[in-house]
UniProtKB/TrEMBL annotation:
Gene3D superfamilies: Translation initiation factor 3 (IF-3), C-terminal domain. The keyword Protein biosynthesis applies. Coiled coil: none annotated. SUPFAM superfamilies: Translation initiation factor IF3, C-terminal domain. InterPro entries: T_IF-3_C_sf (IPR036788), Translation_initiation_fac_3 (IPR001288), Translation_initiation_fac_3_C (IPR019815). Belongs to the IF-3 family. Pfam families: IF3_C. The keyword Ribonucleoprotein does not apply. Keywords: Initiation factor, Plasmid, Protein biosynthesis. It comes from Nostoc cf. commune SO-36. This is Translation initiation factor IF-3.
């Protein structure tokens, strides 16, 4: 019976030693402040991961067909304005199907219209009328 108690005492002493060796990190959520045990390596890993995620450039893609309606076009432009104001790049692609390939000039004009509509919030990085793709970056 004595050996069982000694084993428990050893584990509690071991736990106390672990508590003293791990640093406490103070966190504040809104008005509540509390401390949490956290290993320093894990903290460094999370910080590095957050920095890499925030530094990564984001490219949003918008695809539409040649016969896009006025309301749909306006909606896509409004979404692109929001993304560009947030700092994301926007890639526009016009998709042609079947006989629509005969009207590639109209698709090029559609891309030109997109570029002129977004001149106020972004600038054109690349405009490829052959593949019908326009990449617009924030101004």
């Amino acid at each position: 019976m004595v050996s069982k108690l000694e084993g428990k005492k050893e584990t509690t002493v071991h736990n106390v030693l672990n508590l003293t060796l791990t640093p406490l990190v103070k966190l504040s959520l809104h008005t509540y402040k509390f401390s949490r045990r956290l290993t320093y390596g894990k903290l460094q890993y999370q910080k590095k991961k957050r920095q890499a995620q925030s530094a990564r450039p984001v490219v949003k893609e918008v695809r539409f067909g040649l016969n896009i309606g006025v309301a749909d076009y306006k909606l896509r432009i409004e979404q692109a304005v929001g993304w560009l104001s947030k700092g994301d790049s926007v890639k526009f692609a016009v998709r042609l199907r079947g006989r629509e390939h005969q009207y590639r000039e109209q698709a090029g004009e559609l891309l030109d219209r997109v570029v002129t509509d977004l001149n106020s919030v972004g600038k054109v990085q690349s405009l490829d009328k052959r593949s019908l793709i326009a990449l617009i970056i924030p101004a």
